[in-house]
Amino acid sequence: MHETPENRPPKRAVPEAPPVASTELHEVCFGAGGAQFQVTKEPITSDNIGAALSVIEKCFSLKSDVEAAKLTYERFIAGPRRYHSEFSGTEVELLSYDLYRVGDEPAAVGGAYKLLNEPNRIYMGWLGVVPDFRKHQNPGAKPLSEVVLDDAIALARKRGETGIAAVAEDTPANRNTHAYYERHGFKVEKTFERNGELDRLYVLELRDTASKEGAEASREHSGVDVGDQLGQTAVLTDRNKEHEVSMHELLLHGTPFHIGRMHGELLAPLIGDVVQVYMDLFAALGGGDRESIRVSAQAFADRIEKFDPRYMEEIRGIASGSGIDLRDILAINSRTEILTSLLASSKECTLFCFAHEGILAQTWDWLRRLEGKTVLLRIRHDDGHTVLTMTEPGIVGKIGINSAGLGVGLNILSSSERAEGVPVHVLLRSALDARSWDEAHDRLTKSNIGTNSAITLADDQGRCMTYEYKGDGLKVLQPRAGVLV
Fold it and tell me: Other C-beta atoms within 10 Å of 323: how many?
């Protein structure tokens, strides 16, 4: 990725104070074997420019890229940070250029600049992660590239911007860069020629303003699918009619990470409330402090990743969008598994299915502190398949129906047996993502879930089954006279 607008010599110089060299504790990153390393972020200065360029050299193969990055960093350090670019024909302002260290090792660089003739948008500049730090053996870790992206998003929001842009060469050799942007919700705004080569301009829209406007339109025109109008985004609607419990509805579409991030952004305060409710409950039941719970939750990351990495991507997106620690989001997604390890028994929901009539219904008998905090996620996939699930903010799914005519319900079973596997809420969402009865049945019979539960699957063709999991065993129950209770 190149930044030619800022690599041109300035036409005028404006004296500017160099950045102050301060170090900021940023994240906790998990490495191989569960080792923990602090990730620190520091502005690029004359003291650490050599370390920053060592990252560039490991990430960019062309000598011209290293030279261009060096020019950018020198301009950022000594000024002027605002200048006229002959290439873009506009004023350019260098906003932020940072070095990230894992422990003491230079691990990544990130930056941002603004073309002053493009309102409401900043550009990412010189994003690079040293190959040794691009992957973590622990799948619960937040990739360092996402840490850098989150910082760019935070900077854009702080400035009141509504978009982030990035330029990448349109070549097969750059496919990993393209995949990175597309996985995180960027769209190609245009392809253009530069110096005889094609470049792609990627743009990520930060949808807060559009989402709020869309939600208002949805309230006024309930027949309009605002999600279709906004494309790959999310819309938050309040359902609070007379005699009904208040419930939010999110219309979600996009990549798994993007779906999660929009979920996290729009419901961040509620997700924080849900996390606190469960942390209080876990502690009251003897589960220990928050760090102890995080260790328990972290164990489920690997199970989710192996089952289907898309759901782990969505969970990472929720953490990114909400600004809440990834391990806390894992904890609420595996809350049933953590609770059943602390409880001898649990009395929750009542479910019934009248198969011939195509009726599946249940109660959700749970904590009073969660009243008014439930959410309807309406998730539309690229092939048109749509999921509608009632869940708790921050959790990828629970009970619901889909456009293939399938529905799922849940009961928790009391048992002394313990199982190790996929959290039941992830498995429920997986069943709803199935396009057919056979696909859902296959997922439910070949997946080992992490607790003792009964999942009921029904469809609009008169079929109904309950999958009863106890320990490592599975028993499938058929309806009697078309009824399951």
Answer: 14
**Which runs of E-coded beta strand occur in 147-196?**
163-169, 187-194
pLDDT digits (tens, 9 = 90+) for 432-466: 999 999 999 999 888 767 667 788 888 988 898 88
Determine the pLDDT at residue 62. Answer: 83
- Residue 271's nearest CA partner among 83, 34, 262, 311 is 262
Residues paired with residue 349 on neighbouring β-strands, in sequence order: none
Tokens at 6, concatenated: 């800022």
- Side-by-side strand order, sheet with 234-239: 234-239, 247-253, 375-380, 386-391, 399-402, 406-412, 453-459, 464-470, 473-477
Residues whose CB is less than 8 angstroms from the CB of residue 308 and which lie 6 or more positions away in sequence, other chains included: 426, 430
Under a CB-based contact definition with an 8 Å cutoff, are residues 383 and 412 in contact? no
CA distance 95 to 281: 44
DSSP 480: B
Distance in angstroms (rounded) separating the CA atoms of residues 244 and 239 = 8
Are 414 and 345 in contact, with CB atoms under 8 Å apart? Answer: yes
Q: Which residue would you say has higher pLDDT here, 340 or 138?
A: 340
Which H helix or E strand runs over 411? strand 406-412
Give which of 451, 443, 445, 446 is closest to 412, Cα–Cα.
451
CA distance 115 to 198: 20
Q: Is 363 exposed, middle or buried (0-12, 13-18, 19+ CB in 10 A)?
A: exposed
- Strand, helix or coil at 69? helix
Cα distance between residue 328 and residue 318, in whole Å: 11
> pLDDT at residue 192 above 70?
yes
DSSP β-bridge partners for residue 370: none
Q: How far does CA 409 lie from the centroid of its chain?
A: 25
